[in-house]
Each structure stands twice: as C-alpha cells, then as structure tokens.
Amino acid sequence: MLHNGWWLVTSVYLVVDTGLSPAELVLVDSVQSAFALLLEVPAGVIADTISREWSLVISQVLMGTAMLATGLFTSFPALLATQVLCGIWWTFASGSDVALMTDELDDPGTMHPRPRPTTRWPRWPACSACCCSDSHPTRSSARSPSY
C-alpha cells in the first residue's frame, strides 16, 4: 500500500518545508477529519450501490492527486485543500476494500486473519525455542509436535 508511509513524510514536509505553525497543523488535521467524517456515509452509499471497485478506483485517483498536489504547494490554503482531498480519499477506501474481499469470498466465515503455515518453525524463527519447546508452560509435553 502506497499510503502507509505517507503521513510521516507529509508531517515532516508540512513542518520543515512549508513552515506551518502548530495552530495551522491542528486546523489542517481538524478540517481533514471533519471532511472524512461528513463524507463517510455518502462514500459508503456509493460503494454499496454503485460498485466497491469504483469506490476504490476513486480513492486511488484522489490519493494520487492529493499526494502530487501536496508536494507542489506551500501556501496554507492550498495545503488545506490537498489535505481535504486526503480526507475524502480515505472515506472512499475505508470499508470498501474489506467489503470487496468479503464479497469475492462469498462467505465471510472462511476468511482467516493470516495464512496458516504447515509448521511453526518458518513463522516464529526468533522465538521458536521458547514458544514451541516442550518446556513451555502452556504446552503439554505429552503431545507430539505437528510437523
């Protein structure tokens, strides 16, 4: 996901390069959050009635536009507008991705939080001695390990 490191980079940019004051930073965050809150329901309606795929497409287009515009502007009003776009992008993405995966599986009960490996060793190499040994207090020494 492209936006995972976005908030850290944007925060540094807004403080160091554009020189926004703490009050302006709080205002930017407040306005962004307000737009995200107000548009959460309409974005969900679009995702549920039109298409979850198109909701994600809209989200990605808004994300790219907001990222590009944030790097191009240094004035406070323009940066405020770009962060409003970030709030709108978030509303189109939130819930649509999980709902789309659930629809594709046709059975939400089959979703697992993580892949299930066949052994414990590849998954926990650093703590395999403490977690998977027979001396661990939660593991019965009478059971044999399942390899």
The total domain count is 2
The N- to C-terminal Cα distance equals 34 Å
Number of continuous helical runs: 6
The amount of beta strand, in percent, is under 5%
Largest sheet data: none
Radius of gyration, in angstroms, nearest whole number = 22 Å
The overall pLDDT average reads 77
Q: What's the total count of β strands? A: 0
What is the overall silhouette?
Answer: elongated
What structural category characterises the helix and strand content?
mainly alpha
* Helix-residue proportion: 55-70%
Q: Any low-confidence stretches, pLDDT <50, length ≥5?
A: 124-142
H-E string: HHHHHH
Protein name: MFS family permease
InterPro entries: MFS, MFS_DHA3_Transporter, MFS_trans_sf
Could you describe the 3D structure shown?
The model is unreliable at 124-142 (pLDDT under 50). The radius of gyration is 22 Å and the shape is elongated. The two termini are 34 Å apart. It has helices at 6-17, 22-49, 52-72, 76-93, 96-105, 128-131. The longest helix has 28 residues, at 22-49. Helix 3 (52-72) runs antiparallel to helix 4 (76-93). With 147 residues, the protein is mainly α. The chain has two domains: 2-109, no CATH class; 121-147, no CATH class. The chain has six helices and no strands.
